[in-house]
Amino acid sequence: MDILLNVLEQQKINEEITISGSKSESNRLLILQNLFSEITIDNLSDSDDAVHMQHALSSNTETIDIGHAGTAMRFLTSYFAVKSGREVVLTGSERMQNRPIEILVNALKDLGAEISYEEKVGYPPIRIKGKKVTKETVQINGNVSSQYISSLLLIAAKLEKGLEIELLGEITSIPYIQMTLSLLNQLGIEASFVGNKIKVLSKKIIKKQTVIVESDWSSASYFYSIVASSEIGTSIQLSAYKKESLQGDSCLAEIYTHFGVTTVFGQNFIILKKEQKSRLETLEIDLKNAPDIAQTIAVTCFAEGISCNLSGLHTLKIKETDRLEALKDELTKLGAVIEVTNKSLHLGRSFDMHANIAIKTYNDHRMAMAFAPLALKVPIKILNAEVVTKSYQKFWEDMQQVGIQIEVV
Ligand SMILES: O=C(O)C1=C[C@@H](OP(=O)(O)O)[C@@H](O)[C@H](O)C1
Ligand SMILES: C=C(OP(=O)(O)O)C(=O)O
Question: Which SUPFAM superfamilies match (predicted)?
């Protein structure tokens, strides 16, 4: 489905939106719930990725296809590796079959797991013969994806002696590792992260409890972008959010102050408000702790005529698409002057934007969602707009609610 986005008349927006639960918290809790039946989950994500995770966990078939869901692929690898007596082939979309998994597979094999590659070495599909693993220490490279580490941490408490992980190299996406550890702590599982060592103690049974998933902060980023490009006085209320978030992308509240957007924390909601015009000429920021909001920030900078130097982006090359190349190609079509390296993006100041450009989305939900706010400036076409459901089912509905007109073309 291709769509044309337009805003007929810029008006001061004043809307309330409820966003579904965090897909990262949800996919962790779904694994944990299967290991500890004492857990009840509230405000679970309705994203495709969480649906894939639920299907995988309840499936009895040998082959399990998790589509584009990176967390499902990585977290289920450890989950099935220690599920004695079960043999599965974990596979995914064509892109998933080109997203690396060898670092995690090697760590699991070091612990005693039995995993082999069905096609290309280092990539899904993988065959996993579930068995009891007995080792309790492992080393793993921390600079490619934090999901490998979270994956090991999620099963750690169910191992006979718990698990001690030594992280090698520079650690990327640290807040996602901390999210995993915080959830374990919240459940009553003892875990510590000191220097480059993480330790999780074994735990057989936990207290019966309900865990409430906070709404998704990465999804909130698109509203930050909309408010940044709106008239002074515009405000959008988003639920259900809290100040003490487990999600690293809550750094948005701080980052968007540079675009004149303030965040007020209420009881279970936030209000984003455009307070003033941005006086910033160049935004310099390292996003190694928040890679999923890089596309949103680059597009907001372009919309606002602000140049930016974004660093810490090495993981973007192995996400749903090569996000650095995709940003370069699509922003260039709109008139941007942009350069990318393997880990950074440099956008020049530009005050002109081409109208009616068709933005390719490369099977990447965040390409579609990050470019949508540009409709506040010029009519823009989004190709294969349905990709958004990977993380955000009612994205286009919510865009309409904040005044963006949508026409299927
Ligand atoms: O653990 C998680 O829930 C995630 C970790 C991050 O991946 P990397 O650690 O691969 O950067 C992030 O990009 C992804 O959307 C979700
Ligand atoms: C990178 C992402 O997801 P995953 O790696 O879980 O597919 C994302 O949602 O931006």
Answer: EPT/RTPC-like
